[in-house]
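Go through this chain.

——
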Amino acid sequence: MSRIGKKPITIPQGIDVDITGDAITVRRGDQSLSQKMLPGIAIKVDDGVIHVERENEARETRALHGLMRSLVNNMVIGLNEGFTKNLEIQGVGYRAQKQGNQLIMDLGYSHQVIFEEPEGITFELASPTRIAVKGADKQLVGEMAAKIRGSRLPDPYKGKGVRYAGEVIRLKAGKAGAK
């Protein structure tokens, strides 16, 4: 039995869970997230608790049991609390600013790097070098943070670029001096 898959998910106040056909939808107010149910997995809701069960003991079904439980749990947590990925910008002249729903970054290129806020994602700037990507969909938050980081990966020699908050960059030694 999957250790993760057999844990029940408690539904917080104000969150509605609907199971229709082959999809599960989690709603809070005007926000909603949905996930297609994986084959061989059954989801039951009773008394404010979600139970994820498998219909058979096939190898593939056992592998998907914990995954489906994690996906549903992430939807519930995302709508209740939300997810955040923090990014830092390091480098002389490297900075970010927000105009409307656009994140505009100066990263040492001859042009500015611009990202639009996708639906369900917001960018917050604590300072010109600190960006927070926030949203209810964990996958979308991580994907958007990875795209922003990918616009200027940290340099292995000087450490300049966009990195996750707390990420440690191992710097390489530069050229050895001529003797």
Q: What stands out?
A: Residues 83-164 form a domain with the Outer Surface Protein A; domain 3 fold (CATH 3.90.930.12). The chain has two domains: 9-80, 83-164. The first strand starts at residue 9 and ends at 10. The mean pLDDT is 92.
